[in-house]
Amino acid sequence: MARQKMTEQRWAEATHWPLIIASILWLFAYSWKVIADVSGPGAVGLWIVIGGTYAFFVVDYLVRLMLADPRAPWFRAHLLDLAIVAIPMLRVLRLLRVLTTFRFGKQSAGTALRNRIAIYGVGASLLVIYLCSLAVLEAERGVPGANIETFGDAIWWAFVTVATVGYGDFFPVTAVGRMWAVGLMASGIAIVGTVTATVSSWVIELASQGRDDNEPSTRGQMRELLKEVSDLRQQLAQAEQTSKE
């Protein structure tokens, strides 16, 4: 039996679940290291897990890039994968792809799209809040003048920051912590925009229910209608020919 040639698509399918597992391992190891403030041999073991999963993602990206044909269009279409390699925290977003595969009953194309956007929006917001809390806590803990010293403080700060409330009771004092704060604030604006657009689309669809006569026909609907008319003409012609015979 001839051996099938490895392609980028086949490689992506083969590594889908291993990459999901690697994302979970990375999240678990990084969370344990930061929240428990692990040091000594335990920290070395966690760093091995973190570094191993990172190497796995780098190898996956390079192999997919080498197998892609042509490579330039693939590179432009997979900038998120490059960002996942460059920014380790983004690799957890792969977990959201699993959630978007679930279907709940029969859905229209618009409803399915909105559900995917909602899953990505809610999932991404929770992940961003959690990961930024870890990153800021790691950067701030033990620094002179820092006020974010526990995970509880960090998660509270992340929630009020992403919600654009900003009570000012907790704030980062290091350059790295402030960098994560800027990213979190930008994410908060994007999340609010996504939620607003999704809700607006849902309201518009509800308002348009029962008003199908006012909706414009799509090209696909016109093609189906023309095909039905053509089939009906053929049936009439055959029936007419049969009656003459």
Notable characteristics:
single chain; mainly alpha; Helix Hairpins; 2 domains; 73% helix
Q: Which structural class best describes the helix and strand composition?
A: mainly alpha
What gap, in angstroms, lies between the N and C termini?
57 Å
> Strand fraction band?
under 5%
The mean pLDDT is: 79
How would you sum up the global shape? Answer: elongated
Could you say what the CATH topology of the largest domain is called?
Helix Hairpins
Q: Strand count, sense and closure of the main sheet?
A: none
Low-confidence stretches: none
For the record, the CATH architecture of the largest domain stands as Orthogonal Bundle
Number of spatially distinct domains:
2
Q: What's the β-strand tally?
A: 0
Helix content percent band: over 70%
Order of helices and strands: HHHHHHHHH
Q: Total number of helical segments?
A: 9
**Cα-atom radius of gyration:** 26 Å
Written description of the protein model:
There is one protein chain. The chain is mainly alpha-helical and 245 residues long. It folds into 2 domains: 1-91; 100-208, Helix Hairpins. It has 9 helices and no strands. The protein has helices spanning 8-35, 41-67, 71-77, 79-86, 94-99, 109-140, 151-162, 175-208, 219-244. Helix 1 packs antiparallel against helix 2 (41-67) and helix 6 crosses helix 7. The radius of gyration is 26 Å and the shape is elongated.
